[in-house]
Each structure stands twice: as C-alpha cells, then as structure tokens.
Amino acid sequence: MAFIKNPLFIFIAFLIALLVASIIKKIYYRLRYKKRFYILPKVGIKGIASVAMVIAISISIIIFLTVITADIMGVVFRAWPGTRITIEGILIKIGGLLFGPFLGMFIGALTDLLSVSLTAGVFHYGYLVASMAFGLISGLISEIYMNARRKNIQAAVWSTIILVFADILVILYLFLDLGKNDINIEFLGLNIDVAPNLLIGIIAGFIVFGVLVIWIGLYFYNKRIKTNNTLLTQRQIINKKTWYLNFSMILTCSIVTDALINVLMMPKFDAELSSLLYEQWIAIRGVLFIPEVVLNMLIIFPIFKIVTPLINYNYHEDLVEDKNIPVYVD
C-alpha cells in the first residue's frame, strides 16, 4: 500500500477523477441544456496569447532573479531546486486561476520545462508534477468559484468547505506519516528540534485562521457596503464586490496549494536531491508555511488585479456554446 502515499500516484488519480467528472459534465450539458461543453476552451488567438503572456511572465521572473543576483539565485535554484518551484508556483497559480485546471496544468508544465532549459536548472520529474499540480488545483478552485460570482456568501461557504477539507487531509497525512519523535533539522548552520505535534498544530491552526479571516472579511465588507452604499456608484459597488471574491479565492488557493503541494508533496522530491531526510524537509517546509502563504498573497493579489483587466479574457465563455452553432476556430 506504499504506492498510495506516492505523490505521483495521487496526482495521476486526482487528474483521472477530474477528467471523468469533466466528461460526465460534458454529457450532462449535451443532454440537459442541448449545449456543447468543452473540457478545454476553444482554441482562439486571444486565448493563446493570454496563456503565452502568463508563461512568459513566470519564466522572465526566474531569469530576472538569476541575473539581478549575479547568478547567486541560479546557484540556489540548482542546489535546492525546490526553491525554484516555490517561486514558479506563485505565478503558475495565477495562470490556473485565470484559465482553469487543464490550461493551468499546461502552464505549470511549460513554465517548469522552459525555466530549467533557460537557466541551466536541475530537472526532476517530481518538480514537473508539482508545477502541474499548482496549476491544476488553483484552476479547480477557480472553477468552483465560478458558481459564486457576485455572491459573497457562497464564496465564503466554498472557501470554508475547501479549507476544512484541506485541514483534515493535512492532519491525517502528517499524523500517519510522522512519528512521535522530534525532527532534528541541521540546515545552514542551524540545529533545531521540531515536535511533529507542534508542526501539525501550526499548519492546521493557520488553515483554521484562514477560515476566520474570510468570514471576518465578509462581515466588515457587508458592514462597509451598507454604510457607504448611498455614496458609491454602481460600478464602485461591483468593484468592491469583485475585490472580496478575488481576495477569498486567492487566499483559499494560496493556503490549499501551499499545504498540499509545498508541505505534503514536495518534501519527497527534495529528499531525493539533497542530503536531508524526508521528515526534515517536511519540518522545513512546515515552518515556512505561514511566510509562504503571506508572500503568495502579497504577490498574487495585486498582480491578479492588474493582469485580469489587461487580459480581459474569460475562459468560461469558451467552454459552453449552443450545439447548433457550427464548430470553428477564430
């Protein structure tokens, strides 16, 4: 049963389940609504250009960090390839949120392969899978939020369900995977003992804190809108509503992807390419979990707000069309 704990097996099983669900949805749309449902958006110039722009931004940032630090970051990326994936993952998440799970997975794969090629990085199949998982999970969260557009209470409920589910997965996985003995970390001259229960408590507790932030944010948002409603134009009200929806979606995405991929999946691949043990990498990534989520929010939220109107592309519109319309490529 060891293969069940293999991240590659879990990723493939999850991908197959998502494909099956998409095929069922395709059949349902055809029978119920007499419409075509595309698993991938229809190929169009605007869609291709938008995806290419996100990939280019992701790769250019990795190259920029390498050049601006006189290849110091390049050495770090080659010594600890997981650091490159952590940075790449921030921008891959944006691609997943903008273009859905399957295009997000495609963006993740191309970003990793091109960044390895252009920076003489270290290739490992596990990091390729992790990059694809960043796009897949963030895109799936975007799909779920599509049904909550302009409905803040639904967004808060979905965030709670997703975060609670992720919290349970993290607790069960770490509780079963880690022993009771403290994990000793000798890293960059530091010698630290980390208790497994403390590590689980930090990660699980912060996920619960994320749920509280989402509901507290909804409370203050509703209070502010009711107070200032007479002073705001309709456009300003819509923009503020979009602000909360984006905030809750990005916070949920950042917490879930960092917990499931950075903390649970990537330590196995880190251990294969370094002298540190699997448990030590879990402890390192667990300790860095909260700073990584905060960094994700500081980078993804403003970039998402800037890039979304520039791209002005809603891939959901290219997923469904009337079946009487001839199939074409624009």
Automatic annotation (TrEMBL):
The chain crosses the membrane at residues 7-28, 48-70, 90-110, 122-141, 153-176, 196-221, 242-261, 281-304. The keyword Transmembrane applies. Gene3D superfamilies: 1.10.1760.20. It comes from the Bacteria. Keywords: Membrane, Transmembrane, Transmembrane helix. This is ECF transporter S component.
